[in-house]
Amino acid sequence: ALRSMPVVDPHIPTLCLVGSPNVGKSSLVRILSTGKPEVCSYPFTTRGILMGHIVSNHERFQVTDTPGLLTRHDDDRNNIERLTLAVLSYMPIAVLYVHDLSEDCGTKVADQYITYKHIKERFGDRLWIDVVSKCDLLDRATPSRFDDAADDGVDDELRRYREFGPEDAIRVSVQSQIGTRELKQRVHHLLTSQRARIKADGGDNEEAVGEVR
């Protein structure tokens, strides 16, 4: 799957945006980097791995926009989704996981939560930032978030996720420019830490990438 990717330098810290389809990953790539992915209001707008670059404090970093992940078993994923899993599995990346609690993306919060928990458990060793996107839409109630009947039997962890997202998540609105400055600062800190991890890992990263190639 990685043979079809743009060239990624394994020695340069790379931020990988992950999440369900249409949660706002491509919009965040546009404000964080030189990448200009297509931004549309339908799932799987991102059909491959798109690359951009960040230059911050005279340091250069890479950003990848990955296809969205649906809530299903990994064996049932299509080839587009498998590209995302390939990047997470084999590339030395840090993760920016994007959540849309407004459900404007078309995926229910409960389904986003299931996918997030699966990916976090599988790739939790990565350096990680959680972002709640489209936060300007959160005041507009959606039936699945505010229907009391739908909350019957929902555990406290999911209930907290519905209201706040993961712990320490940054709330961002690209449209209203809410939280974008904090996001850029957190991303720079994350990628600086990723650079130190790459240097510490040394030849292990080269060997892993070489095996994929």
Automatic annotation (TrEMBL):
GO molecular function: GTP binding
Organism: Aegilops tauschii subsp. strangulata (Goatgrass)
Annotated protein name in UniProt: G domain-containing protein
Residues annotated as domain FeoB-type G: 14-71
Nucleolar GTP-binding protein 1 Rossman-fold domain location: 79-136
InterPro entries xref list: G_FEOB_dom, GTP-bd, NOG1_Rossman_fold_dom, P-loop_NTPase
